[in-house]
Amino acid sequence: MGNTLFDISNKVILITGGTGVLGSSMAEYLLSEGAKIVLLGQTEGKVKSKVAGFKQKYTHVLGFSGSVLDKDFLEAVKNKVVEEWGRIDALINAAGGNMPGAVIGEGQTIFDLNMEDFRKVSELNLDGSVIPSLVFGKLMADQGHGCILNVSSMAATRALTRVVGYSASKAAIDNFTKWMATELALKFGEGLRVNAIAPGFFISNQNRKLLLNEDGSYTDRGKKIIDNTPMKRFGNADELHGAVHWLISDAASFVTGAIIPIDGGFSAYSGV
Q: Are residues 159 and 220 in the same domain?
């Protein structure tokens, strides 16, 4: 890009959940802007496939398969990336998900909540961002610079029916983002920043059947969301790219502890 503040070429950016719809979309965009990308994913086959696909167009891409909850795995990844590229400039915590038992289904109430699934969802969404933030954040603190970008949700700040476990864990992500941002800036200097994006409703593999019928029309839930989104549509994955680019670039050098909604106006609208 013409403006050097927005230049992210040669930045080393690690993305957890890098094989998911949003994570892989971010990875491809950042590669196209000249960044060096490290993809982390749970499933070895998916990671290899994504990396092979990216390498047809881009040179600087690495992939590792393992759990974001496994500190030893993350430490090993950190060491390999530093050996290869010398540093890590940004971490995007895009890993996350939901489980049936942590959802209040049709005809159920809060008292049907499965606590084991609730804990697993909390572990994946919250611990799955906290642990990578500690491992790679320590490297950034030692470097004196670095940016962590968490992925929050519209479910963090309001009671969206059914997704109780997901909501609780994303609300915790908002708090952790602010907490980690202040901790790093106060104790390790202004070169360390932590922010989050809060996507509205995007079609992903996880929610496709919840929002769309087989013929592509909206489900009842999908229609309710559209009715409460001033822009009257779902988001496209590439509509996250601008905010992600800005937040990891030097153009956002005075931005930390922020949670940026990317939601077509959903969070601003009361429904009346």
A: no
